[in-house]
Amino acid sequence: MTSIPELYSIFQEHPVVSIDTRQLPQGCIFFALKGSNFDGNKFAASSLTNGASYAVIDDAAYATDDRFLLVPDVLKALQDLANHHRHQFEIPVIGIGGSNGKTTTKELVSSVLSAHYPCHFTKGNLNNHIGVPLTLLSMPRGTEVAIIEIGTNQPGDIEALCQIVQPTHGLLTNIGKEHLEGFGGLDGVIKAEGELFDHLAKNQGCAFVNLSEKYLPDMSKNVPMRVGYQQTDALHAESGIIEVQMLADIPFVRAAFLSDDGPRVELSTQLFGAHNFQNVMTAIALGIYFKVPADKVKDALEAYTPRNNRSQLIQRAGATILLDAYNANPSSMEPALLSLIAMPATRRIAILGDMLELGKESAKEHEDLLHFAAGLNIDQIVLVGKEFEKTSFLKFGALHFADNQAARIWFDKQDLQDAAVLIKGSRGIRLELVVV
Question: Could you tell me if 27 and 51 are in contact, meaning their C-beta atoms sit under 8 angstroms apart?
Fold first, then answer.
């Protein structure tokens, strides 16, 4: 068997790993992971033929020479190797969790801190038991701050990832109705997301706490060092709490804060909505804590452009389209709808896709959201997916389509001049295809 120190010695000579035979950088180490429908061991030999220098396997039957590195379990070896690599760095490692806005917050925090330090951060949303190790293993020498997104869809996920990441600092964006199928309810979400604060408490870490968010102050009370920040109507230099003022949230978030030496700093972002102000405020708070010069904080946030179907603003046929179709749950849908009705427009259209992974609460949550949307100043509500089909949509004059293609056919026929359009749904509905 190959030990982790032995594997790390090889990794130092070949510091690129791959889990996909379709993506094999020359000289990499291939990890033969298993899935529900495949056995990576079967592809180990072809990985060596196609560019890998070594293949990590857990089935001795496939080990034909010393390029095959046999371990008891490939996934565990990947995670242990990542943890071993992480311990080569005595730097701040910031874990970011929460129900909504994790990836956007991670991107904003990374933009701010990267303006002043060599940073390493999660690419995309590689925030699970495979993505987190891959993120850590791609961390280069010279990194001074790491920002790692940590996801969960069942109890124990965050604690397991914290054991790999060993964050020194951490934050939760918020607590909302996410993955109720796995958590059973809001109390389950609080307990599961709270595993990040629990880990920081046990390991003398530091928590960044958005005091404007319900649940977070109480959840973090056992963490020995807490840095509080909050939204305020007026900035106070001696409050003891990092304060950020929201100047506007439509069409774009504008904010103000006080720099270390006192002057007021104002900035204008390319993000829309009050929910994104919370993400911007978090990035400002971490920038202040880590002593990033105020002008760099401002420049980084103003330069950030939303992408990957998250909070994207698109102009099309005279309409302003709010494309936020990467994910959705009840706690993120309502703020997005409020952003829509705040938009100046002669017509407002909400195209909403199913919210997945809500378990037994799904029918109620979809019906409740429909009632919420129907009570707003929205000219046309369009629903997509099987869950929304079960609601009383006809009573409210809402349209329903089975899938994104049917919705697109309808959308392409609409007069969109001076309209504001929200497009939001869970990843599995792929609502971006309505406009892309």
Answer: yes
